[in-house]
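Weekly modeling sync, notes
Attendees: S.R. (lead), two postdocs, one rotation student

Agenda item 3: backlog of single-chain predictions. S.R. asked that every request posted to the team notebook include the full sequence so nobody has to chase files. The rotation student volunteered to paste the first one in as an example of the format we agreed on. Action items at the bottom.

Example entry:
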Amino acid sequence: MLDYNVFFWIILAAVVGIFLLDLFSEILNLKALRPELPPDFADVFDAEKYAKSQEYTRVTTRFGILESTFGLALFLGFWLAGGFAWLDGVVSAWGHGEVVTGLLFFGVLYLANDLLTLPFDLYDTFKIEARFGFNKTTPATFFGDKIKGLALAALLGGPVLALLLWLFGAVENAWLWGWAAVTAFSLLMAYLAPAVILPLFNKFEPLDDGELKDEINAMAAKCEFPLTELSVMDGSKRSSKSNAFFTGFGKNKKIALYDTLVANHSTPELVAVLAHEIGHFKKRHIVQMMALGILQTGVLFFLLGTFIGSSPLSAAFGVQPPQTHCSFLFFAMLFKPVSKVLSVLMSILSRKNEFEADAYAAEVTGDPGALAAALKKLSADNLANLTPHPFYVFMHHSHPPMRERLEALPGRPA
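Predicted structure, as returned to the notebook:
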């Protein structure tokens, strides 16, 4: 039986309130679409492609609203019908210890959510993305990715969750040990992911010898960037969208280019894109964001330690007596408003960092026009929304709108 106490109303208001706030931002973003092509993009968009980009924004936004509405209705229906108490009763009746019971509880929820949202994933991939020419994923690749994702969640996430359940059930100052464990795991994954996890999903081939490789190596040397590996990833296996990223710690830096990026851009443009990524390294943005993430995790675990086993919080979900595994989930619901605020603040910082990395790339290449051309091509290739509403940007964007990036680029040709 649910207890309609203060925690119940706080969580209900938070979940519904955040949904409505996001919905409001989505509606504003749709209203901000303009049929007139911004003059700066006339060299990469024609009228047909610009109209297509706007339609892509409309379709994906409306689909996103439908999906989030379904998710909210599913959560509220399960909660108000006493679903969490029912599921806890089912897995507890299987007679295992607290840790195994907790793993089963989260495992059932994870699998159920994955199955219920599968139709949305399928429609998004094989209907929407295909309709706009992006999807290259085959059904075999799609379901293969799903299976690999589930296996990784079990093999990597399962032991970490088991450790946290044990710590909060048996150890004093569990929040401190939990913070340390999750931080260590995150750092380990950042180190292992490029070599172990990403190759499970994509092929990485060394960039062929030639002008592009020479120019990128020369830029890395000029920036004193310790580049140890330069590869091309088969991004076209799943999508025609383009990207680039770098990974690694210390003196072991690796850069990966999507094959679609290499195919669609000139050497100066690709060097400028990589200079932007190097800019994040030189400006210490990676370390900064990582440190803030670790600090945020510490605050999260401290508060979790305060609310773990809270009888009123568990009662708001109909679970009595309190269970450690349930408290993890219920606290996440209670923490939602704080999490949303922190997400917005981190996005503000991320947008600032993007401007700084752009400025660094323009300076170090001495060719801001190349970066401007690359950014414009990326926006056209990915059918980016060129006129997002400021409130939507504030709420959701980790990168500044493309027009703002171009306007802020030092030395850009008029």
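Discussion: group reviewed the output briefly. Residues 78 and 84 are 7 Å apart (CA to CA).
Action items: rotation student to repeat for the remaining queue; S.R. to check formatting next week.
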